[in-house]
Amino acid sequence: MALRAPSTIRWPDGKDFAFTIFDDTERGTVENNRAIYGLLRDLGMRTTKSLWPLAGPGEADIPGPTCDEPEYLGMCLQFQREGFELALHNATYHTAERALTLKGFDRFRELFGHDPHTLANHATNREGIYWGPARLSGWRHWAYKMLQRGQKYRGHVEGDPLFWGDLCKTRVRYVRNLTFRDMNTTALVPQMPYYDPARPWVNQWFSGSDATHGFAFNRNVNKSTVDKLVAERGGCFLYTHFGKDFYENGRLDPQFVKTMEYIASLNGWFVPVSTMLDFLASQQPTPRIITDRERSALENRWLVDQIIGLRRRITED
Questions:
Q1: d(CA 176, CA 178)
Q2: Helical H runs in the chain?
Q3: What fold does the segment set 16-90+176-316 form as a domain?
Q4: Where are the domains of the chain?
Q5: Has this prediction a pTM greater than 0.90?
Q6: Residues 144, 152: contact at Cβ < 8 Å?
């Protein structure tokens, strides 16, 4: 596993590397969330958990609790008091028109005292902002559109009933987009956080390192990849779903626990996503604007990762 040259980033407090997690809320429960976030808390790590502020009037595309459930809300408020960041995963668990999205933003602010600093689109919600083929540019947009079989995401389309771009612009600081298998997110996307003139409703974008479920975490995050991250003095924004395969039959996955204990034993900076992004933004003299060439290189890399991931899933199945 070839090493890159060490990063020139000087992490706060003399830390050798940085590590955080953005947890999408699908399939989370009070039981599995308490177990996982209890582990992170005890290890001295603070990360970011997304949530749905509202129970929608329709059926859930993918199940998970919302802040309309008192026990779940109480748990989320406890996490906030303990220093974890709460983020938005759209207003609810199914496609929401503008009025419901606005209600979700207002409910988030009412419950947690501020607008969400970070957001990730829920994949099945058609109000996703710059999602699906709109994540990509040029020929990559059209190629991905064919693969998506014409699925359209319209949160950024002015005049559409699903439009909420202006809310994103005024009420969200950072939005997650492309994810990669490599743990060193800051080496892959040194522009982070960045503004994309082709997608003006988002203030700043960030990327993630892919560990979408427990199996992928154990494959992609291990002593070897962690040691490489440390040697490169990099920063990892891990993207996952803690509700998927990290906690089963009343116990945490032992390999996950062992890996997290190892990461926590190292000289790392363990803060929520927006805290790390704020720090990276503070290192730039002016807000970073991604160039056409940088965007193309990033999107090409993402497509290669997607193809490799698809081949791997076919082999594993």
A1: 7
A2: 30-42, 70-81, 98-112, 138-147, 165-171, 185-188, 214-220, 223-231, 254-264, 273-282, 292-316
A3: TIM Barrel (3.20.20)
A4: 16-90+176-316
A5: yes
A6: no
